[in-house]
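Q: Hi! Curious about what Multidrug ABC transporter ATP-binding protein looks like structurally. Here's the sequence.
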Amino acid sequence: MAPSSLNELSQAVLPDALGAAEPIIRISGLEKTYAGGFHALKSVDLSIRRGEIFALLGPNGAGKTTLISVVCGLVNPSAGEVRVDGFDNVRDYRQARSLIGLVPQELTNEAFETVWNTVSFSRGLFGKPPNPAHIERILKSLTLWDKRDNRLITLSGGMKRRVLIAKALSHEPRILFLDEPTAGVDVELRREMWEVVRQLRDSGVTIILTTHYIEEAEEMADRIGVINGGRIVLVEEKAALMRKLGSKQLTLHLQVPLDAVPASLAGYDLQLAADGSELIYSYDGAEEGSGITALLGDLDAAGIAFKDLHTRQSSLEDIFVDLVKERP
Ligand SMILES: Nc1ncnc2c1ncn2[C@@H]1O[C@H](COP(=O)(O)OP(=O)(O)O)[C@@H](O)[C@H]1O
Ligand SMILES: [Mg+2]
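A: Let's find out. The predicted structure is below.
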């Protein structure tokens, strides 16, 4: 991957300085009920900031693809509004859509077409005049240049995915949607995809990716939105999310295993683990006064000795599991 060539893309995609603070996408009161009566999106409000990587995290069936499809104008909303850089995505469909590139969840490619032709053709679909120099920049930035005359059927899985990205970038969009870009992809290819996405963001493209991999959201996102059952249940800066919701755990490895937590320690809501040889104490990592000093004092008073102890910050995974469990 040649970062310099991706940076060249930025000339084409950097947002205007004017209105830079305005969200690039504003979704309000969005509802989707499919023809069969299934209520897939429930009063979704969401704003996407210019230049960020936003991860929409949710389990299978949560409504991620539906939300993306509505924003991209592929599925009609039942109610609500989507504005893409000010353009209403229904009333001003062409303007709104031309700002967006979409890398779909399903890999569909014209197997016998060449890389060059398939990417050039995608650009034409948006009514843009041919721009071989732009196509060349994209292919080089995605290390597909050497493969430009290859038929898609001859490419590896990773290259096919990069062709999908090249197609999505062919008409110089300022926003790129990636729907589960690494679903079913091996670890190495996943890391490669992450690198490509980061470089695109650095070149000025706003990125919205959906994923059901917590690790992916944790690794990639500036902000994370969690969707479950068609509802956005949380939107947070990743760092703040980890700080605010991340509870901590203290594990004490006991000298002598316990059968039960002594009554004198009932106030700490301790858990016994590892056949009574570990005591686990959970506390809010963000709050002053964890209660650990008092706990250690009370343990001593109860005659409970420990060999060692360690603490652990809960991960996004714990938070996610809690959210999805609590609000079905
Ligand atoms: N065309 C459709 N008609 C009826 N129901 C659909 C349609 N597409 C998706 N759904 C349903 O809407 C829900 C959300 O689907 P989807 O947006 O694909 O979720 P995700 O991408 O998060 O896995 C699922 O229960 C799915 O079965
Ligand atoms: Mg999906």
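A: A fun detail: The longest strand covers residues 39-48.
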